[in-house]
Amino acid sequence: MILTSLTKYREAGLLILRVALGMIFICAHGWPHLAAGIGKWRELGHAMHAVHIHFAPVFWGFMAAFSESIGAALFVVGLLFRPACILLAITMAVASIVELKAGGVGGASHAIELCIVFFSFIFIGPGKYSADKS
Asked: 104: pLDDT confidence band, cut at 50, 70 and 90?
């Protein structure tokens, strides 16, 4: 009985989680990185050195900024949800590796947590209140 009454709020919970996490991600990471331009993209792209990719830092930095902003916006709306989650999880995986190399688990914990959340959402889906409705 109790479980049944709690599960009826599952869809609302997914919506709240998507909107809150996505908006914070856009405001704190995505838009500032995307709007900063080529210099910031190059700086972000150098993070790929941690995974032994040494070419096209501007491209990789733009892709990180794109996933943190446009990908997070798609995450909020629930449109192209799983591809957006894949981009966000990959971005956070690279950030985790960079932070682990720089300062250990303490500095990387936030990126690791977000990587796990976005990876988990690939399987959970956006919920009923989304543009994808899956």
From this structure: confident
The structural domains of the chain, with segments of one domain joined by +, span 10-124
| pTM of the predicted model over 0.85 | yes
> Picking from 1-5, 56-60, 71-75, which range would have the lowest pLDDT averaged per residue?
1-5
- The answer to whether 9 and 127 are in contact (CB under 8 A) is no
